Amino acid sequence: QSALTQPPSASGSPGQSVTISCTGTSSDVGTYNYVSWYQQHPGKAPKVLIYEVSKRPSGVPDRFSGTKSGNTASLTVSGLQAEDEADYFCSSYGGTTTVVFGGGTKLTVL
Amino acid sequence: QVHLVQSGSELKKPGASVTVSCKASGYSFTTYSMNWLRQAPGHGLEWMGWINTKTGSPYYAQAYTGRFEFFFDTSVSTAYLQISSLKPEDSALYYCATDYVLRGHKAFDLWGQGTTVTVSS
Fold first, then answer.
1. Which of A28, A49, A75, A94 could form a disulfide with A98 if both were Cys (CB 3.0 to 4.6 A apart)?
2. In whole numbers, what is the pLDDT of chain B averaged over residues?
3. By the 8 A CB rule, do B74 and B56 touch?
4. Under 8 Å CB-to-CB from A23, ≥6 apart: which residues?
């Protein structure tokens, strides 16, 4: 099972919005609404920001939003803040109890 | 408090074996499956598979069949990842994780702190 494709980097200035894409296939992102997004700060474990494409766990700010169209999911971070600088990973259910992750996107807040 | 606490860093020689532990606390261990993930420099996060902590059935992602084994001991609420015949390319940070709050939603909201395995002669 191939990894999902994410851009290696993204950037934005404080207050701006940035969108990170995550492209899979019809075997994962395109079929299942089980796309998740994770934020990982250096030296820390990943933290789930979005599950089931667009749902936010309790405590996650609404500045983080997720969408999906076809085989591509997207994470938008609105009102960028310095603490949003981190690595972001997408994942998708791939059927038969499998999960596939993206390669990660390093978000820089300028 | 709900926690997953992993064992400490390991330095191993090629060909050796290593066992990483993941101790769960604050919840019923057999209620939630345990997943294992790997993060190697420049390779992002890779899902290695999971083990059903009720039945003991493991599932390994395609790239992790053969030298990788998941098992657990319910008496100490601990899951284990064993890697045999270690290769330098096995050097990575290994995480255990489960879907504690988001059970059934295929997202991991409870993570261990990670265990670094370094394979070097």
1. A94
2. 95
3. no
4. A4, A5, A6, A29, A71, A72
The token pair at B48 is 């290695």
Give the closest-approach CA distance of A99 to chain B in angstroms: 6
d(Cα B34, Cα B58) in Å, to the nearest integer?
Answer: 9
pLDDT of residue A1: 56
CB contacts of A55 in chain B (<8 Å) are: 105
Contacts of B102 in chain A (CB under 8 A): 48, 51, 57
Does residue B35 contact residue B107 with C-beta atoms inside 8 Å?
no
What is the pLDDT confidence band of residue A72, given thresholds at 50, 70 and 90? very high
B76–chain A Cβ distance below 8 A for any pair: no
